[in-house]
Amino acid sequence: xxxxxxxxxxxxxxxxxxxxxxxxxxxxxxxxxxxxxxxxxxxxxxxxxxxxxxxxxxxxxxxxxxxxxxxxxxxxxxxxxxxxxxxxxxxxxxxxxxxxxxxxxxxxxxxxxxxxxx
Amino acid sequence: xxxxxxxxxxxxxxxxxxxxxxxxxxxxxxxxxxxxxxxxxxxxxxxxxxxxxxxxxxxxxxxxxxxxxxxxxxxxxxxxxxxxxxxxxxxxxxxxxxxxxxxxxxx
Lengths: 118, 107
Fold this sequence. Notes:
The complex is a heterodimer of chains A (118) and B (107). With 118 residues, chain A is mainly β. Chain A contains no helices and 11 strands. Helix content of chain A is 0%, strand content 53%. In chain A, the strands form 2 sheets. In chain A, strands 2, 4, 5, 6, 9, 10 and 11 form a 7-stranded mixed β-sheet that branches. A 4-stranded antiparallel β-sheet of chain A has the order 1-3-8-7, with no helix packed on it. Chain B is built from no helices and 10 strands. Chain B is an all-beta fold. In chain B, a hairpin with a 3-residue loop joins strand 5 (46-50) and strand 6 (54-55). In chain B, strands 2, 4, 5, 6, 8, 9 and 10 form a 7-stranded mixed β-sheet that branches. A 3-stranded antiparallel β-sheet of chain B has the order 1-3-7, with no helix packed on it.
């Protein structure tokens, strides 16, 4: 059974960084893109960026300069780090997989809640 | 960046009725890259429709996607209480992905 297991909830102060992990299992890790999507309280979905099987990244314009995605093929784990946190970054962060560029996010992680508070 | 605008914001219908959800793009979108998701409270989104009109695995034929260019539609027939959710459209274009703001369907 394909599974994307995300790390647990985080509480951060404004200006800090947060790093969330997404561990993939039961599929060929190197065949799929991994995306990060966030959802602010009561709001819709926002695409943040992707990392492809080669480790290349593509970030949404509004996060460029603040976001870094990386991967560890040896553990099938993908990481997303967001720096310079502000109150509006408080959200649920999801990872999701896509088979190449098909615009089909077929499996999602369970979500990681990030709280930003002083 | 292509902006997707979904309407209506909220739709309240009764079981057995049909729902029509709209997704309008700010510029033309390839039908290959227009996708619909369903999200229930406290859950991750679920892939419903891809390629504008193809149902994902396990999605009943009550869910039907259509459209092209800038106008896309998700139609849900014979509504059931379990269809209560927020529905999002998504597109890929210009190396970027964007989501619509969602339509809340209440049964």
